[in-house]
Specification:
By secondary structure, the protein is mainly alpha-helical. The chain is 65% helix and 2% strand. It has helices spanning 2-24, 47-56, 64-94, 98-120, 125-150, 161-182, 226-256, 261-286, 291-319, and strands at 327-329, 335-337.
Amino acid sequence: MQKGLIAAMLLAVVVIGLGAFTRLTDAGLGCPDWPGCYGQLAVPQTEEHIQHAATAFPERPLEAQKAWNEMIHRYFAGSLGLLVVALAGVAVSRKQHRFIAIASVVLIIFQAALGMLTVTLGLMPIVVMGHLLGGFSMLALLFTWFMLRQRPITKPQRSGRWLWVGLLVLSIQIALGGWTSANYSAISCQGLPLCHEAWSDDYQIDAFHPLPERTGSNYEFGVLSHEQRKTVHVTHRIWAGVTALYLFILALSYIQRRHSDIERGRASRLIFVLFTQVGLGVANVLWQVPLAVAVAHNLIAAMLLLCLISLILAHYQSATKLKPLVQKETHYGEVEHA
């Protein structure tokens, strides 16, 4: 079971990375249908299949590289789905962590539905962002499942409200990153630390409307105005500053105060990953969103989420009262630990 969960977590990381790569290479509609590609289980390669694709989808000429980017992402996502269902089946049959097992199956089905809607609704931003959040949630759920198998939590005696606030703050930042990507706003602000001069004069709150109007058949390459995209980007940057400051102070408090060595170690790891993520964000601005840096920015965001979850679990695990050893008397009058 443990090896299966590790494999699932690794697959989830790969799927998140491939999802980012697919978005950043503008391959979200590389295959205009779902779950196949131009009516095939793989990207059309023969002359007959290519001709059939041109006839069936005349509005969407085949671009083999983009189609392969999309299909490889689907293959890995499908493999993850099958593995999660198998792990959940084993957990339920053994009556172990049944709630989290069932929740993982529900989430993977929801993710598959969002994957379909991403294509059928033409990259609608709210769906694309939801799909990204679902991928992060799937990884977080698998990680939590794995960690709880190492050491369960029973009746913790400590409050962790500031940790949960941190999780909310980070989740909002990840959602803003997804909205920035889904609306093609990554290069709308090229100055530092915020944006161009007088950016506040162009701030438009309607840039966050969940159903922006479109003029074409899809949302590919974005439908927002330059001012709206600038609004999305600068909001992402401002909240990034809030997130970085809050998580840094939170982690620092665990390092300086009287906490367990495990908590201090995980807090230190959180700070390291946090600074790495900030550095990648700055690099994206300075170097105009290079593909490798942008994909790494997505993956490190996922690692930052896992670091915070591991700190939350350590907080409660250190406060969990473990059952005392049961003592019984042996035939020789000695005390034996059960």
